[in-house]
Write a structure and sequence with these properties.
By secondary structure, the chain is α+β, with helices and mostly antiparallel strands. The chain has helices at about 10-25, 55-65, 65-85, 100-110, 115-130, 135-145, 150-160, 160-175, 195-210; strands spanning about 1-5, 35-40, 50-55, 95, 180-185, 190. Pfam families: DSBA.
Length: about 220
């Protein structure tokens, strides 16, 4: 069974959703038969590459709220994250274009390291306040999971995975995703948003039952 998850590495709900999926999988009896595939989705692809800005005032402007209102909203999200064992510092965050990070994740996938790198990027950005928007920031993450630095720099320089990132985004749109996280099980069941773990578990159980229907043999003669 395959679970595809569209997400961005600077989406606070995506890290929360990742933890909730992990909780659901821990309770799923067939978890060893589940493949989790992380797909690319940019929250704001309009931000010019190489440009960064403070997250708090930018979000306040986008939603027509005061910075204090946005700070309060961030605090609520931080509390939800804490319930999943995550320590956020959202008001201190910096935002930028995440295209290179997604390209790096596709490179990592070819080496069987995408899941490990995804976790590191989310942890680094949200819990350590590390940038994830340029080559120099991304290389240490890549090296930490065992990728070759020279290969990483070459792949990000020639943009060899740009088409793959755009294909992920196009697929998400075709499947009806309007935001992230977006969970899709066997391209049949979808769940939008950082759904509670028990709901994600129900989706897993239903997908498994559909893929493995019970076959009843004739009753034995007495």
């Amino acid at each position: 069974m395959q679970v595809e998850v569209w997400s961005d590495v600077v989406c606070p709900w995506c890290f929360i959703g990742k933890r909730r999926l992990e909780t659901a999988l821990a309770e799923f009896p067939h978890r060893d038969r589940v493949e989790v595939v992380w797909r690319s989705f940019q929250l704001d692809p309009s931000v010019p590459e190489g440009e960064t800005h403070s997250t708090l005032p930018a979000l306040a402007r986008r939603y027509g709220a005061s910075e204090e209102q946005m700070r309060q909203n961030m605090t609520q999200v931080e509390q939800l994250a804490a319930a999943e064992g995550l320590e956020y510092h959202l008001a201190d965050g910096v935002s930028g274009n995440t295209l290179l990070a997604h390209e790096l994740l596709h490179l990592a996938a070819e080496h069987g390291k995408r899941n490990e790198l995804k976790e590191l990027l989310l942890h680094g950005y949200f819990e350590e306040g590390r940038p994830v928007f340029d080559v120099e920031s991304l290389v240490p993450f890549a090296v930490q999971v065992g990728l070759d630095e020279a290969e990483v720099r070459a792949a990000l320089a020639d943009r060899r995975y740009l088409a793959a990132v755009r294909q992920d985004a196009a697929t998400a749109q075709a499947l009806g995703a309007t935001g992230v996280p977006f969970f899709v099980v066997d391209r049949k069941y979808g769940a939008a948003g950082a759904q509670p773990a028990d709901l994600l578990l129900q989706v897993l159980e239903r997908a498994w039952a559909d893929a493995h229907p019970l076959t009843t043999v004739p009753a034995a003669e007495r």
